[in-house]
Amino acid sequence: MLRSMVSRTAPVATAMVAALAISVPAALGRPAAAPSAKSTFVSTCGSCHTLKAAGTHGVVGPDLDKVMLSQPQIVTAITKGGSAVMTKAQLAKYKSVKMPPFASLGSAKIKGLAAYIHSAMSMH
């Protein structure tokens, strides 16, 4: 009897915890947590770029552990595409594949992503 009662109430309890996780921040006047810049990097950039701090090992684009860009350069690369910040030699090396612009991420997410990448680059 106890086992059947627990199995019937577990999904209800799980749903209640999930609802509280969403409603408590909203009730306090705070939005629910947005995905972190690291998770955005992993899902959006990690298949092409290596970045040790993010645990990614992409081989299509430049290894971001081996380059140093300013935060404004990173914002430009994300917004306008990678070629917007590359030298002629770098463009020649990556001529078959070009990083597309990701302006659709929106200004706030791009700035957060750029800050994360820049800080990760500065760690080495």
Q: Would you kindly provide a written description of the structure presented here, covering whatever features stand out?
A:
The chain contains five helices and two strands. The chain is mainly alpha-helical. It has two domains: 1-33; 35-122, Cytochrome Bc1 Complex, Chain D, domain 2 (Orthogonal Bundle). It is globular and about 35 Å long. The model is unreliable at 2-7 and 9-27 (pLDDT under 50).
Short précis:
By secondary structure, the chain is mainly α. The chain is built from five helices and two strands. The protein has two domains: 1-33; 35-122, Cytochrome Bc1 Complex, Chain D, domain 2 (Orthogonal Bundle), CATH 1.10.760.10.
Strand content: under 5%
- The number of E-state strands comes to 2
- Continuous helix count: 5
Structural category: mainly alpha
CATH superfamily of the largest domain: Cytochrome c-like domain
Order of helices and strands: HHEEHHH
CATH architecture tag of the largest domain: Orthogonal Bundle
CATH topology of the largest domain: Cytochrome Bc1 Complex, Chain D, domain 2
The largest sheet has its strands arranged as 1-2
Report how far apart the termini are. Answer: 59 Å
> Fraction of residues in helices?
40-55%
What general outline do the C-alpha atoms trace? globular
Supply the CATH class of the largest domain.
Answer: Mainly Alpha
Give a short account of the largest sheet.
2 strands, antiparallel
